[in-house]
Design brief:
alpha+beta; N-terminal domain of MutM-like DNA repair proteins; Helicase, Ruva Protein, domain 3; five-stranded mixed beta sheet; 24% strand
Amino acid sequence: MPELPEVETIARALKTQIVGKVITSADLRWVRTLAIPSAAQFKKQIAGQQILDISRRAKYIVIHLNNYNLLVHLRMSGDLVVRAGKIRPEKHDRLVLFLLAKNGEECTLAFNDTRKFGRVWLTSDPEKILGKLGPEPLEKAFTVEWLFENLHARKRRLKPLLLDQTFLAGLGNIYTDECLHIAKLHPLAVSNTVTKKQAKTLHKAIRAVLREGIRRNGASIDWVYRGGDFQNYFRVYDREGEPCSICGTAIQKFTVGQRGTHVCPKCQKLR
């Protein structure tokens, strides 16, 4: 599943490609892709809307229109692809938007989703969908003090808590494993046992890993998302049996909350 750096990379690319263009019509090819409104309302409301800006909130791509916001969550296998001209949709295209530039050039924005888990919302009130999300880890509201206080306000295992989008927005399986390794914290450590010093280290690690992931355009780890090279710099993720870059101990893999989890048993001791 694309995480914050991958979604940010896609959003930045789209911003250079489709901002300013007008949506002339929509082809909804898999009705369950659309969360809200109804298919008929969607086609009526989206037609004639100009794309004003594109941003990201957590793992959502936010396409800002004249009167609405189009929210896209890629889930497991989704991708947004811009194609020049009016060409025939591809096999796994679930939603196709037909766009027109000021100079008359046409293109399409296709939501391609092999596994059909991705969702799209067209809404005038995006906070109904985004309002329950936690703070953005790269913004000012995410401070060491906030992290320490909120870790201690809960009594949960660290990895499941960091993956909880209502706690902190944007982290997924890859980047959580990576930042916990940098912070030398075990994924099963209980949140309210983290010291102030450890919280400071974890805060720094989260920001560093995400910024590096964005700088490298994310990680290309499966057959869906391609383009980044952060996978070449993983410390623990997907490196089971390989030596830890810090101490040389073999990386171990186990399951936490049904998620494959990678740790160095020496650097990340469970105390």
